[in-house]
Each structure stands twice: as C-alpha cells, then as structure tokens.
UniProtKB/TrEMBL annotation:
The keyword Hydrolase does not apply. Transmembrane segments: none annotated. It comes from the Bacteria. This is WD40 repeat domain-containing protein. InterPro entries: Haem_d1_sf, Host-pathogen_enzymatic-act, WD40/YVTN_repeat-like_dom_sf. Keywords: Signal.
Length: 323
C-alpha cells in the first residue's frame, strides 16, 4: 500500500502546487493578457489574446466592478463601489498581497500615463481622488457630481471627466489638482473618446427616460461647442481607437461601429448580447458581451470575429496593462 499512498500524496502535491494559498490560479502576465471583471458571479477571467483562450478563472467573492494592472506588470488592483478598500493581488502568485483604504463609492479608476499615479472617481463624495501607485493619497478635487468616464490627454496634461448625473464636462489639470474649465453637455452622458486630431471629445450616452440615445455628441475641446452628432444607435456607451479608426460600442443594439476621425462610418457589426466594453489590445479589438458571458476578438480592419471565448458571468470591464 505504501507505493499507492506515496502516489496519492505526490498527485495531491502537484495539484495543490497549481493554486495559491488563496485558491487562485497563478497567471503569467504579458501584454497579450487581459482580465475581465465579471460582476454577476463576482469573478475575474484572464484571457491570453495571442492564444485565443481563457487561461484562468478567479472566484474573488467580492463585488469588484473595476481593476487596474499596476506598472510592475504583476499587481492587479481591484475596487468596487460598495467596498471601503481596494485590494491588491499578485497575478503570478495568485495571492492577495495588500489593501488600500480608498473609501466607498469608487466607480472608476485610471492609471495616468506617467505610471506614477492613479485617479479614482468617487460617487459618494463627488470627488476625484489621486493616489500614488504605493497607495498614498496625494490629492483630491471636489466636483458637482462624480464622473463615470475619465480620459487623459495624449500629453498627459489634462483629464476629461464626464458625469452621468451632471450635464457637464470638466477639464482638469492633474498636476495642480484643479478644474481648468467646464462646459454643458447632453443628459445621461456615458463613455467618451478624445479625437485630438480635430480638437474634439466624442461623448456617448444612455438617453434620459424614454428617449434612448441614438447619437455620439461631438464637442470642441476648447470652446465646448457642440459641433455635430454622429448617428450610432442605440446607446453608444463605450469607445476605443487605434490607427485603423475610432470604434464605438452601442449596447442597446449590440452593435460595434467603425468610424474615421471625421465621423464617417466604415462598417458595423452586430456582436454579443448587451455588450458594455470594447478595448484595443495590440492589433485586436476585445468586446465583452455582458449577457452572453463571453469575449469576442475582432479584427479592426474588417470587423470580422476571430474568436469567441467564454468567461465568467456578466463581464463588465476589460482590464489591460501598459499604455
């Protein structure tokens, strides 16, 4: 019986070695790896874009709704609106390594391009909170309403804050922690992208009441003037861009649109079920289907679906590293 016992112990040790003390599978991070925040089952899925496969599933058992991969390429910071702390995990170890006390109400987070600071949007205090990547709070700015959408200019000298509850876009100097100026925008705004070539910010939205938003609103960055509207039904709420064009995801119609910098449409694709997020990862677009529980990988040139990968339930945000 001893050889059998030895074999059982060996197999158990091998299986246990594949998981951390937190019961989470280790993840070898690379620029082709993304994570999805799945809010229906409180899980995190890891996708390797280059392999076209789901490489790990974490059952985190907390209502996280957002995440950031820190510049060390290993630490995954997870936060949630109802949580008082943001938690830090080592991906390669599959272990929780610490927490930051950031307070309840955080609805969005953005790692600034210098890699030294993170900006959190707090919906309870209506503040923009600045933190170092070591977890120390370095500043705070009060607004009329916390923005759901945060953008950084190409030079890193301005932040653009779009609120769903306040019909206003705020332009912020991140170094001085002050609001440079603001201008009125449409109601129930959500999602935005900078088109700096034309000195524009494109803003999407859900619509108000029974009036479902059908268009992207294009504002002049300097004057705040509404220059035009681009038809992109229904509910254009998420954006990304690359050298091929600007892409808008309308979750009301489950449609991905490809546009040029002048707003002309160069294709569209029905995709997923109630998709909320599109992200550029290398030379691929990743689209999260919230109700279909999957990630679609799309060629940005021709809008052809290259792969469909199952993830946890309710993928709400796609998290990638780098800038």
């Amino acid at each position: 019986m001893k050889p059998l016992i030895t074999l059982v112990v060996f197999v158990f040790s091998v299986l246990a070695g594949g998981c951390s003390s937190d019961g989470l599978a280790p993840v070898a991070y690379s620029p082709s790896v993304i994570a999805t925040m799945n809010i229906k089952d409180m899980s995190v899925s890891f996708i390797d874009i280059s392999k076209r496969k789901n490489i790990a599933e974490w059952d985190v058992e907390k209502p996280y709704n957002g995440g950031i991969i820190l510049p060390d390429g290993d630490t995954l910071l997870l936060y949630g609106k109802t949580l008082k702390e943001a938690d830090l995990y080592s991906m390669k170890k599959g272990e929780k390594t610490g927490s930051w006390k950031i307070g309840k109400g955080v609805v969005n987070g953005l790692l600034l391009s210098d890699g030294k600071e993170i900006v959190f949007s707090n919906d309870e205090g209506n503040t923009i909170d600045f933190y170092s990547t070591k977890g120390k709070q370095t500043g705070q700015l009060h607004l009329n309403a916390a923005p759901l959408t945060l953008l950084e200019s190409g030079k890193g000298d301005r932040l653009f804050a779009v609120s769903f509850h306040d019909e206003k876009l705020n332009i912020i100097n991140p170094e001085e922690r002050k609001n440079i100026r603001s201008f009125p925008i449409h109601a129930s705004a959500a999602g935005a992208v900078l088109n700096e070539k034309n000195n524009e910010v494109w803003v999407g939205g859900h619509g108000k009441g029974s009036n479902i938003e059908q268009s992207i609103h294009v504002y002049d960055i300097e004057t705040g003037k509404l220059k035009k509207q681009i038809h992109a039904p229904e509910m254009p709420v998420n954006f990304t861009k690359n050298g091929s064009g600007l892409f808008v995801l309308s979750h009301g119609s489950s449609t991905l649109y490809k546009l040029d910098t002048n707003g002309a449409e160069h294709g569209s694709l029905r995709i997923g079920a109630n998709p909320f997020e599109v992200e550029t990862v290398g030379n691929i677009l990743a689209v999260a289907g919230y109700d279909s529980d999957d990630i679609y990988l799309v060629d940005p040139e021709n809008l052809k679906i290259e792969a469909r990968i199952k993830v946890g339930k309710g993928p709400f945000q796609i998290v990638k590293g780098g800038k």
